[in-house]
Amino acid sequence: MRVLFGGVPAAGHLFPLIPLAHALRDAGHEVVVTSLDGAESLVADLPFACPAPGVDWRRTIRSLGAARLPVEMARTVETNSADREAFVALAALVNGEVAESVAAFASSWRPDLVVYEYLFPAAAAAATLLGVPAVRHDLGFTDIAPLHAVMTKHMAVPMGEVLSLDVAPPSMVGGTSRGWPLRPGAYTGTGVVPPRSGPRISVTLGTVPPKVGGFSTLDRVVTAAASVPAEFVLVMGDMDISSLGDLPPNVTPCGWVPWDALVRTSDAVIHHGGSGTALAALACGVPQLVLPDGSDRFAAASAVHSRGAGIEARGADVDAELISRLLTDAELLAASREVAAEIAEMPSVAAVARRLEGLVACQPTGT
Length: 367
Hints:
The chain is α/β, with parallel strands linked by helices.
């Protein structure tokens, strides 16, 4: 069968789709990833299609939002996109602009199944047009169903019912899966993990938050790290962190390093609240300090904190004592390991791939 994957051009939205795409490809199926400009470098070794070249995701959100939904635009800016109902309304405007192009590509490629993440419902609209199943690959802890309804309301294209894949451990979202359960995982790129020399805490604030809010939080983490008896691996991609000045001797900056592989060598992590980042730590059973500042990162931070697998804090709260708790608090470690065991029992991408094969096989012929 042919499977079309769709998502916006952001690592946190495309990377989680890649393991399932790989599983389907490994099972002998043909897959293509569709997105907008800038996604070419985010789809690993998978075929890529950009049906609407020239559409810049972030710039178009700002321009269309200011012109058509100024109230939602103001709410989005004020909350740094943490007001998800307002933000997804803006995202729907971009999807409306590219829906025809996405549908045209899908009509020419003729997928049997469409898998997409929630900020790219143009892919679901294409599935509706073709009469094939659409499956929403959810990303973390936010309940996507009501947000999907908001996006549908703002898109002037028909969109049928969709199934969903839920990667959140059930104990962290009310005890039950909100769709077909899928063990969380994500492609995190390539690179060399530095050798470990002692207790290790890995740190990342993602690629977006530092650009938005500067390096004040990171500076507090680095300053506090100097007084913690552990090595810190600082993962900041290709961003220039020279403004931080000389780093303490126990802080090692790295470029792009596979986050999941790094976490497996770590005793704890400090991060911004990206759902994939949090789920990787949970899967490895290591405590985490989550420092959210916008978008859906507050949802991840709250879920981790409420489950007892980590600490939610603000940048101003960071000090050596808080960070040291990650290495000494037995309850944090126990809860983290409980969630890791729960994740290990969730269906693998291979199992879900087989279930999707069955879904397509059950479709009436001629669709």
